[in-house]
Design a protein that fits this description.
The two termini are 33 Å apart. Helices cover 2% and strands 43% of the residues. It has one helix spanning 78-83; strands at 2-4, 30-32, 47-51, 57-61, 67-69, 91-96, 103-113, 122-130, 135-142, 144-150, 156-162, 170-175, 180-185, 191-193, 199-203, 206-210, 217-222, 226-227, 230-231, 235-242, 248-255, 266-271, 278-283, 288-296, 302-308, 323-328, 336-338, 350-353, 374-378.
Length: 379
């Protein structure tokens, strides 16, 4: 249901990818032939962008299974700190520009202070970086940034920020050069840009839409009380991802009551106007029933999700880092079963990555790379 408002009302291919790739230290671009754990016939489009928990960004070609370390992403190195991140407590996370393979946004929290006084206010740094390792631009902003994303056209940056430790949170939009064009006092929420410059956030069971290039609300869509035969009255929106053409949204639901530990155990897709809601995939529960990191393929024909990841656990512990599954986004009239057990899994589902025990972790990308701060699908 759509509401207008003036304020926010609100063929199976086993690819044990990432774990068989070379890397883990150093900062030069290197494409590495993965070992026999990657099937060279994998034919999903585009690349998987992911950041390890602390640093390093890798691109995995989903057609060939080759992994590449993006240069100049060892942000904890002394050289990088001397140039950009003078505070010794900076933390880093990143997002690629949506459906784009030319640049990404790096967010460095607590990167420096306003002045040389060690008690002066902390700042966050926003740096646009290309995949050759070049820094293109930088914006320094007072306070702590929760999340920030480039607009699809690369002209704007939307972010949530707390200017001072005990201040309110703000939703803000800046130009690429750092000029503030819109802001609003609002608590942090996951958000996504649309191609026309609007931004989508969520609250409870509502998708909230802003005006173009503005934090001001335009309207909201409410999910119905029931999808098919399933009541969602006691559920709230979990993770979600908007298709690259802006026409559909994939999402999960968190069940608040009764308590069942089924947090995001199914994936739904609906049109961006709220019509044609359908369940498209479900976890069968042979791992921890938790689906997140929803991603659309560059051509919007596939949806990829991470399933079975155990939050707040060491990703290098076997059984905690979960699986990556890809399934068709087209409505073929069935709900796909996500399972690491071949006899339970739908034949259309591709296991992109499965759990295994590392024999020599120091020579391979760590499992924690899949549990880091970024896991996104780009061209």
């Amino acid at each position: 249901m759509k509401h207008r408002c003036n304020v926010y009302c609100l063929v199976v291919i086993v690819m044990m990818l990432l774990l068989g790739c070379g890397g883990g230290s150093g900062d030069s671009s290197e494409t590495t032939d993965v070992d026999t754990q990657v099937d060279p016939t994998l034919s999903l489009p585009g690349k998987l962008f992911y950041q390890e928990v602390v640093q390093y960004i890798y691109l995995v070609d989903l057609t060939t299974g080759l992994a590449e370390l993006v240069p100049n992403t060892d942000w904890s190195s002394l050289d990088q700190r001397d140039l950009y991140f003078k505070s010794g407590v900076a933390s880093f996370f990143s997002h690629p520009r949506k459906n784009n393979n030319s640049e990404f946004l790096l967010i460095a929290k607590h990167c420096k202070r306003v002045n040389s006084d060690p008690l002066s206010d902390e700042m966050s740094c926003l740096l646009i970086q290309d995949y050759l390792g070049n820094y293109i631009s930088e914006i320094d902003i007072v306070g702590s940034i929760f999340d920030a994303k480039l607009s699809p056209d690369g002209r704007y940056i939307a972010l949530y920020r707390k200017p001072y430790p005990y201040s309110d949170e703000w939703f803000e939009i800046y130009t690429r050069n750092g000029d503030l064009i819109s802001d609003k006092k609002e608590e942090y929420s996951q958000f996504e840009w649309l191609n026309d410059g609007r931004i989508v956030t969520t609250y409870n069971r509502h998708f909230l839409f802003t005006e173009e290039h503005s934090t001001d609300s335009d309207y909201y869509l409410s999910l119905p009380d029931q999808i098919g035969n399933e009541s969602i009255v006691n559920s709230v929106l979990g993770d979600y991802a908007i298709s690259n053409d802006g026409m559909q949204v994939a999402f999960t639901l968190y069940h608040l009551w009764p308590s069942t530990n089924k947090y995001g155990d199914a994936v739904f897709i609906m049109n961006i106007d709220g019509t044609n809601i359908r369940k498209v995939a479900v976890s069968l529960g042979d791992t921890y029933q938790h689906i997140d990191s929803l991603m659309w393929s560059p051509d919007d024909r596939w949806v990829m999700v991470r399933e079975g990841y155990t939050p707040s656990q060491d990703g290098n512990v076997t059984g905690t880092s979960g699986y990556l599954y890809a399934f068709p986004a087209e409505n073929i009239g069935k709900v796909f079963s996500l399972s690491s057990i071949e006899s339970k899994k739908s034949s259309e589902v591709i296991i992109v990555r499965r759990e295994r025990t590392l024999s020599n972790a120091s020579d391979q990308l760590t499992t924690s790379a899949l549990n880091g701060t970024a896991l996104e699908w780009i061209p």
